[in-house]
């Protein structure tokens, strides 16, 4: 493949892949420690719902979802660019991956926004 330089958009994708990795690392640690506690039994459902009722935790979970999806799709794009030679197949495969990413984003947002609001009791 020909080297198209910084104007090809590859440098920006490379940069954002690194930025999302740096942002995701602490978010993953906070998520695992506060929502799962890395124990054999985890947290009770009521404690998790109480945390997720807070707008802060909802914002953290949404940012986790968005950054993780971008990071994963950007990495998949790089793999497709490296291994799929035909432009039509590249477009088709990456288009399907983007559609799957949008579906996952929609499911994630629906899940987070349907969680209880502050003052609501979980399970009602």
Explain the overall architecture.
- It is a single chain.
- By secondary structure, this protein is mainly alpha-helical.
- The chain has a single domain, classed as Fumarate reductase/succinate dehydrogenase, transmembrane subunit (3 helical TM bundles of succinate and fumarate reductases, Up-down Bundle), CATH 1.20.1300.
- The chain has four helices and no strands.
- The chain has helices at 10-36, 45-52, 55-83, 87-113.
- Helix 1 packs across helix 3 (55-83) and helix 3 packs antiparallel against helix 4 (87-113).
- The radius of gyration is 18 Å and the shape is elongated.
- It starts with 9 loop residues before the first helix and ends in an 11-residue tail after the last helix.
- The model has no long low-confidence stretch (mean pLDDT 84).
